[in-house]
């Protein structure tokens, strides 16, 4: 497995961010000495932090700090927590300071034949994507923005139910930290205490009937700042509010442990091996729900999922099966 630190426009600011990550006050003089630059050069760098949503605090006569500090990603810390089995399944771990979208970048690598068993993380995404074209808010140094590339033989049929199984893997990773009230919402959301904590976005490339590549994108809210959270257009949950103190690197390692094992075994086991686990965490089990695809609307009682991951809707005693795609699900008020 290789580790790579990818460069971006934030790369020049990384050294000063690492110094300020502890949340303590640092004088301009001490920062300049540590970085080997003048105090004026330090100030120019610090002014740029506001462009990335980082609230720098200045205390007259004492220096500068980032209130609350930053829990920066580290390939070394992630690798320390990964199981040996996971390390064997992971060919490369990429850490980026800033990127438009980890899914977009990894899809490009998959097209070049160089993305299998690659995990890509970013401190900040400028154009993160969610399901159905929604933006995924991912400011610098918060949450988890992770994509993993994998190749499968057998075409799209071999991937049936994969987004639901990834949800199960995420729930298992969160269970390691005793995160309470985690539930799964069909087809690819992870909820906590009745609101969305994380989302999964699968994107495919290649021959859809034979060998195809898939990029699994995961976005998880953790440590969102208030000014950023107000931009989210749906009820949301934040891991640090629900279960404070979980280090990001430990969380990423747990997610990769669960996800890499799932992907390695999925061609043999399929979704049926994860169906019971998904059903136990079903957010809307037995509840009246509304399904919508464009102008079409269906109502009924959520009756679980089948072995292929399709939602089963009980419509006055008639069971109908709905596959993912552009269908949205919500509870009836």
UniProtKB/TrEMBL annotation:
InterPro entries the UniProt entry points to: aa-tRNA-synth_II/BPL/LPL, ArsR-like_HTH, Bifunct_BirA, Biotin_CoA_COase_ligase, BPL_C, BPL_LPL_catalytic, HTH_11, Transcriptional_repressor_C
Catalytic reaction equation(s): biotin + L-lysyl-[protein] + ATP = N(6)-biotinyl-L-lysyl-[protein] + AMP + diphosphate + H(+)
Keyword DNA-binding: yes
Residue ranges of DNA binding: 28-47
Keyword annotations of the record: ATP-binding, Biotin, DNA-binding, Ligase, Nucleotide-binding, Repressor, Transcription, Transcription regulation
Gene3D superfamilies attached to this UniProt entry: 2.30.30.100, Bira Bifunctional Protein, Domain 2 (3.30.930.10), Winged helix-like DNA-binding domain superfamily/Winged helix DNA-binding domain (1.10.10.10)
SUPFAM superfamilies, A to Z: C-terminal domain of transcriptional repressors, Class II aaRS and biotin synthetases, Winged helix' DNA-binding domain
GO molecular function per UniProt: biotin--[biotin carboxyl-carrier protein] ligase activity
Entry's family note: Belongs to the biotin--protein ligase family.
NCBIfam families registered for this protein in UniProt: birA_ligase, PRK11886.1-2
Biological function: Acts both as a biotin--[acetyl-CoA-carboxylase] ligase and a biotin-operon repressor. In the presence of ATP, BirA activates biotin to form the BirA-biotinyl-5'-adenylate (BirA-bio-5'-AMP or holoBirA) complex. HoloBirA can either transfer the biotinyl moiety to the biotin carboxyl carrier protein (BCCP) subunit of acetyl-CoA carboxylase, or bind to the biotin operator site and inhibit transcription of the operon.
HAMAP family associated with the record: Bifunct_BirA
Name of the protein this chain belongs to: Bifunctional ligase/repressor BirA
